[in-house]
Amino acid sequence: MIDGVDSVDLAKKYGTPLYVFDVTAIRNQIKKFRSAFEQADLKYQISYASKAFAVKAIYQVMKQEDVHIDVVSGGELYTALAAGFPTDKISFHGNNKSFEELEMAVKNHVGVIMLDNFHEIELLSRILKTDDQKIDVMLRLTPGISAHTHKYDQTGQTDSKFGFDVESGQAKEAMKLVLEDERMNLLGIHAHIGSQIFGTQGFVMLAQKMIAIAKDFQKEFDYWPQVINLGGGFGISYNEDDDPITANEFISKIAAELKKNCDNVPEIWIEPGRSLVGPAGYTLYTIGSRKDIPDLTPYVAVDGGMGDNIRPALYQAKYEAVVANKMDQPLVETAHIAGKYCESGDILIDKQALPKTKVGDILAVLDTGAYGYSMAMNYNRNPRPAVVFVENGQDKLVVKRETYQDLISLDCDY
């Protein structure tokens, strides 16, 4: 059951593979972050990192919840605009924003542009002058802190493609350029140290470092940030080995650190993405073929795979699953959950305990709400799945299933 709706009924109604989101769970997670900030007595903003899952419907939920969002491309910005999301609550991230993307952001009056490099400062300055506009900006810094996650998820260390390096003096050079540009209002500073982080130590160190940087900037430039954005990266539990921190743990510890090191704590922004939508998501599959090899783990195949969830192949991410129509039956074997794509690495779950299964059973993979649909692809010319939102016993289709016609809609004859 997903918020009062039978997942087997959803599979019959919409087909599989199918992404399903429990919207109540998303709203409740936002409330937990809000409550933690209010208990810590901090000025704050919650900004949904929408690269985790970006469709019109999720932007509309975020609008209903009165939170900010951040986007990292013209496509995400276009989707948010089409969803009617208020532009003053949009932050625009990215390490190589194009002239066209920056122009789009300026023309639509986005709330803040996160400046990532000197090229962007030059491009934005030119656009603002040509369009006779002003805009709020923040500097993304690389503070020299590495998160203890997969190497591809680390973004705060000095050797990173993101942000202005603090150690080498890049950050101060960028600060000087922005403060001298009368069309840019420097709202504050930003850093993001990685993703799927389970401990509080990295965040506490980041809070210390950002206050130290702010004090240094104040001494040199007589500038104190209105906002310090500590990014996101809060881990979720994909399997029994994962032990994520709670919103209260994270926020209470950074609040204590900020107040200890600073009399005038700026407004604190965070950017949860995975932690808002990841646990709320399920992917439903129909079980198909099976391969049994003497003395080896059998393979149970489903009608999706790396095309709708690339994370196991890309990051060696571990998930857990249940057979939705046999929740009351005993677990009798362990099997590889294999996808249908023509790659030997297309294994969704390496070893999963299962009841006795047959063709047509519905397998539900848990906690797939983040970086599933957003990273989905058409490899082997497979259409991407539909997306359904469930809330208070009601289900609603929010993204249609792609058709074969959709797959060739952009093809041209030769």
TrEMBL record:
Could you confirm whether the keyword rRNA-binding appears in this record? no
- Annotated Pfam families: Orn_Arg_deC_N
- Originating species: Companilactobacillus mindensis DSM 14500
Where are the N6-(pyridoxal phosphate)lysine residues found in this chain?
51
Q: What is the protein's given name?
A: Diaminopimelate decarboxylase
So where's the catalytic machinery, residue-wise? 342 (proton donor)
- Which GO terms fall under biological process for this protein? lysine biosynthetic process via diaminopimelate
Residue ranges of every copy of the Orn/DAP/Arg decarboxylase 2 N-terminal domain listed in the record: 25-277
The protein's gene is named lysA
Q: Which reaction does it catalyse?
A: meso-2,6-diaminopimelate + H(+) = L-lysine + CO2
What EC number(s) are associated with this protein in UniProt?
Answer: 4.1.1.20
Q: Which CDD domains match?
A: PLPDE_III_DapDC
Instruction: List keywords of the entry alphabetically.
Output: Amino-acid biosynthesis, Decarboxylase, Lyase, Lysine biosynthesis, Pyridoxal phosphate
Question: Does this entry carry the keyword Lipoprotein?
Answer: no
